[in-house]
Amino acid sequence: MKFSMSEYKQKSKYTMSVIYLLQKDTRCNTNGMEVDETKVRVPLLFWIPILFCGVLLFFADVLEHQFTIRFTKSLFTTSGSFEDRSLAGFTISNPGCKIPYMDPFDENIAQFIKPPSKPMCNNGKPPLFASNLTSIFLLETSLPKYNVSDENELKCCYKPFWRREPENGESDNKVVVDSECHAFQKNTDITEEFIIVNCTYDNTTIYIDTFSFVPLKNTTGIGTGDKKLNVLLIGLDAVSRLNLHRQMLKTVNYLQEQEAVELLGYNKVGDNTFPNLMPVLTGLFEEELKSSCWPSLTDHFDNCSFVWKLFKERGYLTVYGEDASWMGLFNYQRKGFRKQTTDYAYNYFNRFSEELIGNSHVMNVFQCEGGRLIYKDLLDYISKFVATMNEKSLPYFGFFWGASLSHDNLNMPNIGDQDYYIFFKKLLDEKLLDNTALIFMSDHGIRWGDIRQTFQGRMEERLPFVYLLLPKSFRQKHFVAYENLKVNTRRLTTPFDLHETLLDLANTDLLDEENLTYTNQSRRGISFFRRIDKNRTCEDAAITSHWCTCQQSEQINITYTVTEAARSVVSNINYMLRGYAQCAELALDEVINARIMRPQMTGDYKIFDYMLTLRTSPNQAVFEATVRTTEKNNSFEIIGSISRLNLYGKQSLCITDFHLKLYCYCKKLLP
Description:
By secondary structure, the chain is α+β, with helices and mostly antiparallel strands. Helices cover 29% and strands 22% of the residues. The chain contains 17 helices and 28 strands. The strands form 7 sheets. Strands 14-22-21-13-20-15-16 form a 7-stranded mixed sheet, with helices on both faces. Strands 23, 24, 25, 26, 27 and 28 form a 6-stranded antiparallel sheet that branches. Strands 7, 8, 9, 11 and 12 form a 5-stranded antiparallel sheet that branches. The longest helix has 30 residues, at 44-73. The protein is globular and about 85 Å long.
């Protein structure tokens, strides 16, 4: 959004009109009739505040536009002027891939950007206790909220709880709570990992809370004082690169000031979180995972080679944690692990805590546990973990994923901006990341809502954000690798590349200059520290046509061919639902939008890819699909996944398959 000269003149004209009306001093009475100035004359002092307000409104509008321009200018981290950064209309402009520049405040997008409502945790009742690295302590300012007039009559105790290993076929969501409740007064040291606090007053329970800690464990074989490079990966679910800049400006600006490197061409490779994070954590597609180590939904993930296992083998302590973990990476319609996969695991705490004291539930997530915001509790745990590891000089690999803040709402990340800024700033100010590679990232942009039915919303959904903040010592020692990373900010990159980057960080000896002279560009995954060829295409990077943002396209009319292509999508959905008699057969209701990609030549004929947005009945579901046809025949082929753009809610409660829930409309819902 730019502040043009025509807008300026228009606003000036408006202000002068206000002044002219004030000078004319002609007003309306209660019947709407003009009142002659010879009959009614108001003192000049009456008009001064009105004139002042009019001028203020004008300048406020000007400043709003100027702020928006500054907001937009913060979008890019590479050198050069703001005008140069768009590369004549492109964010990425290489022979193999051109990704168009998109204004984050485009008029088609601005209508969806609204101030979010901050959650009211526990109906406004604050926590009664807080914690630090090793203890919990009473917040005396909270006592009146619990009607406690005599704190000596407050009786509190805590019980430890811990993960229970699931048996064959069980889901990985079991905990055991200690039978003994340990009494304490006001504050107490804690040696356990997870605890429940219970307080009574006048023989009535007035407070239940949970707290997590990071006691030392599994340190055998971990060399203290080891100068291995720590790796800390922090994820924020469903936030596109542009939406991060729109919603979390303070965090973005701070990371830029600290010289974090942003990957401008990071393109997702699958639909939702799971198929985009499995390539990061294993280097495999979901289908490859099933054929190698996870045969079915009833199996646990223990046999899969997650990257944290490599770090563990190399002498690191490991940690994995999610919030909103009921729908977590390994838990939603899946069985999780038999053996705990990392040394520390916050997600078991989160699951139990949300079930016990979760509140302010909106759409898919609890936003609060007790009186605390859940996303802030995750950040606090990360801070505790990092501080503990640094205090003991223990090398670590950490993978954390936050969904409670951002999973369901385009605008909610704005609420977390200040907290993420404080979180990163505190870690850096206290020099807790001096020997740590920090990766801040997302999996995809928002996948549903009105914004997804715009072209830009579709593109943003495929372009999540990735930042790398590396210690100065790393940048100096591995200068060539770091320079390659900066070059690769303008290359097409994927989750497979991030996986290769993690492998390099697990063994930084591989980043010596002599090892970086040759990079096998035929591999689907190339480390960010190895220069990626500018001729790289989506096909080279294992990105299907449906998810590729490099393809240039144009909107087209709804022709007979387009309609038949849309019917083929609905037929494909019905085919996937065969065998599920409880699901209704779908029919094409409307083709909402159609775009055609630039034709590709294969042999002696052209291939045409249509990107379609369509609605089905009876479920009024909105789907998006890429359909391929050729000038050689009239057949249609679905390329990649069929995406669901609006929420399915309770429409598919009659089935459990997490893939097919997107499509099923239970027959019992039919009128």
